[in-house]
Amino acid sequence: MDIIQPASRMTPGPDRRPGFMPWVPYPYTKPCCEPVAHIRAEQLSISYDSRQALQDVDLEINRGCITAVVGPSGCGKTSFLMSINRLTDLIPGCRVSGNLHIKELDVLAPITNLLHLRRMVGMIFQKPTVFPFSIRKNLELPLREHGTHDRTLMASAIEKVLQQVGLWNEVKDRLDRSAQALSGGQQQRLCLARALVLSPDVLLLDEPCSALDPISSGIVEDLIVSLRGHYTVLIVTHNLAQARRIADHVAFFWSFNGVGRLVEHGSAQEIFESPKEELTVAYISGMRG
Amino acid sequence: MRPQSRTIQEDSTTAIMWAAAAMVTCPFLWLIGDLLWNGVNQLSFSFLVSAPLNAGREGGIGPILFSTLLVVGVCMAVTVPMGLGTALFLSEYTRDDHFLGRLIRGSLDVLAGVPSIIFGLFGNALFCQVFGLGFSILSGGFTLACMVLPIVIRTVEESFRAIARDQRLSAAALGLSKPTTIRAIVLPAAMPGLLVGIILGLGRAIAETAALIFTSGYVDRMPESLMDSGRTLAVHIYDLAMNVAGGNPNAYATALVLVGLLLIINCSSSWIAARWTSFNQLPA
């Protein structure tokens, strides 16, 4: 049963309680990988206290595509990712300036409803971060928080996302056991399911495979590929081979004297086969970075 | 270095370690042994429930045990909500370098080092006189709360801070509000540390003497309300040992009860903490 509707398609009714957005099931229609800008960053700069971490990033990210963000450590990739769901707000001293839009939504505007934004933009971290309670409760918590309390509705949503991440058959008999007892790869898939259960439009993946063993990593990677067309996926990765395997577009960042900048952005084919910038050539051939 | 001398060096180091450990353990064992040797004969069920007679030389400690529970109960009733609230405020709602947070933390650290006799005099001035509560269980409980709060707050705050940043980030990334994050993630995960903090405070409160002499008083009758004066175990021991000739046997027995209570509290807290942790790591 396809019941989940992307957040952006919901009728934007008046939002009286801060942070409240009813979660309404709706027939899902699959968007395709299309050259329509979904996320648009203009002159985006991020600084921590007085240290500039990212400067003047202009980037358009297409809807339904997998965009890999690559570059050496400390070039502001993760900061960039975290500015998209405003997790940067949680970092003391962090300032984000410039323009950042997800469709018409002005992400950086002070009045932007953060809980709604973060429901629309899911995020997975490097280390699997399941909460220390049961698998079911891990998935129910975000649903409840966003206004779904009906048990059958929650149960069907949980089954659907667990099937989507290929975890259903592994865990269906132990949904009430602790999620921390799962293996690393299973935990990461559960985290993905937990993000998907809110039916986001955008998924931010911050090196989702780097803490996993090769087999789990492969499973998660296949899973990410299966998201193509359904979600706009941004994945930070250090693994160029992985970026080459899965990405439609690649954004290449580089750190200039500690300040991250976007060097080049294009389709994966362009970046890997005919990069324009010398730095890109050096980086993808393994000569730098 | 030849192998032989290395062995000698290793052996002597080990011996020194053992000696140090033994020197730490011996006084404790001696103390417990002494208490048992001198106190266990007086100990009986009737000792625990009957009233003291002849200034405590005879009879039991019934009212004193009850007063102790009341004083500690009042103390905890104040400490737990206030401690939890302040710790949450410090760890979740203030930045590390925020002026207010630093002020609160600094004053708590100073308070934690203030001798209990000062708390006793302060409690006497504030609760007994200014608030007009007199020598009462309420005054004693409040004074103990002032004394115990700094320790509880700092321990509980540490346990909140120990929760991985990842957990908070991923909660925020799911659009969970702050109250939900605290209720569903921070509090359960910090529960063992929270219990330890509270038990630490409880242990300190139950064993306190100086702060209570000036606030909850000496009266060894069964208290009729929280406004009555009440004598706690530690005060009773002090009184029997210092002021009552021939009070030593009952002082020993009372001390045994107090130490027993402390042991029970400490063991149960580690047991609860262990159970809590193992529940969250049950093999699936």
Notable traits:
heterodimer; A: 289 residues; alpha/beta; Rossmann fold; six-stranded mixed β-sheet; 10 strands; disordered N terminus; B: 284 residues; mainly alpha; MetI-like fold; two-stranded antiparallel ribbon; 2 strands; 75% helix; globular
Would you mind describing this structure in some detail?
The complex is a heterodimer of chains A (about 290) and B (about 280). Chain A has about 290 residues and is an alpha/beta fold. Chain A has one domain: P-loop containing nucleotide triphosphate hydrolases (Rossmann fold, 3-Layer(aba) Sandwich), CATH 3.40.50. Chain A contains 10 helices and 10 strands. In chain A, the strands form 2 sheets. Chain A has a 6-stranded mixed β-sheet, with helices on both faces. Chain A has a 4-stranded antiparallel β-sheet with strand order 2-1-4-5, covered by helices on one side. The termini of chain A are far apart. Chain B has about 280 residues and is mainly α. Chain B has a domain of about 160 residues: MetI-like fold, CATH 1.10.3720. Chain B is built from 11 helices and 2 strands. Chain B has a two-stranded antiparallel sheet with strand order 1-2. In chain B, helix 4 packs across helix 6. The longest helix of chain B has about 35 residues. Chain B is globular. The termini of chain B are far apart.
Put the structure in a nutshell:
The complex is a heterodimer of chains A (289) and B (284). By secondary structure, chain A is α/β, with parallel strands linked by helices.
